[in-house]
């Protein structure tokens, strides 16, 4: 992936957004720009990413994510600066993986590790990791049991923005069963059903 180097000091949002758009992603992770939510900050940019999507613009049955880059020159106190990143990642799992009591801790650790491995300095990190177990009944009984992991997080980036975007992409792929260096390898540990 390309290493982006916007200035560590506050830069114009247009320059940071151009750098985010220039990030190169692994070939089995499709990323597109989507409309950013309004009202979160004066300036924002949003990305959607899908692991091996079957159709362009449709959430992947393997794993999907969203990332929003926010900029507020007023520097909200909770952000500890003018920049904030908000991300979301989710993936279906096999039910036996979904019942692992450490699954949520592992999901959070993968995000922290992805940020650390890219030297993506940050502070004021917060988030939730949620696992969901499901069972089909009635006309959905044939679909059997299912599980899903979902992580929502935010942090204030320090320095270049590109490594933070790369860390988010790695997180989505890890949740989908694709660790770094696994391009072209079959996705393991996921369950594809009509509910996913």
From TrEMBL:
Pfam families: DUF3000 (PF11452). InterPro entries: DUF3000. It comes from the Bacteria. This is DUF3000 family protein.
């Amino acid at each position: 992936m390309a290493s982006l180097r916007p200035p560590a000091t506050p830069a114009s949002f247009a320059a940071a957004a151009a750098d985010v758009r220039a990030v190169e992603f692994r070939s089995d992770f499709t990323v597109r720009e989507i409309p950013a939510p309004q009202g979160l900050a004066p300036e924002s940019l949003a990305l959607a990413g899908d692991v091996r999507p079957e159709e362009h613009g449709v959430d992947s049955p393997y794993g999907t994510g969203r990332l929003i880059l926010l900029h507020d020159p007023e520097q909200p106190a909770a952000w500890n600066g003018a920049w904030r990143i908000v991300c979301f990642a989710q993936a279906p799992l096999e039910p036996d993986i979904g019942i692992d009591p450490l699954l949520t801790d592992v999901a959070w650790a993968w995000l922290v590790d992805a940020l650390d491995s890219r030297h993506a300095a940050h502070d004021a990190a917060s988030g939730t990791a949620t696992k969901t177990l499901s069972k089909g009944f009635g006309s959905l009984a044939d679909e059997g049991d299912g599980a899903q992991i979902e992580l929502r997080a935010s942090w204030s980036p320090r320095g270049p923005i590109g490594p933070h975007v790369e860390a988010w992409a790695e997180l989505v792929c890890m949740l989908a069963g694709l660790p770094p260096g696994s391009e072209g390898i079959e996705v393991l540990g996921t369950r594809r059903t009509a509910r996913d």
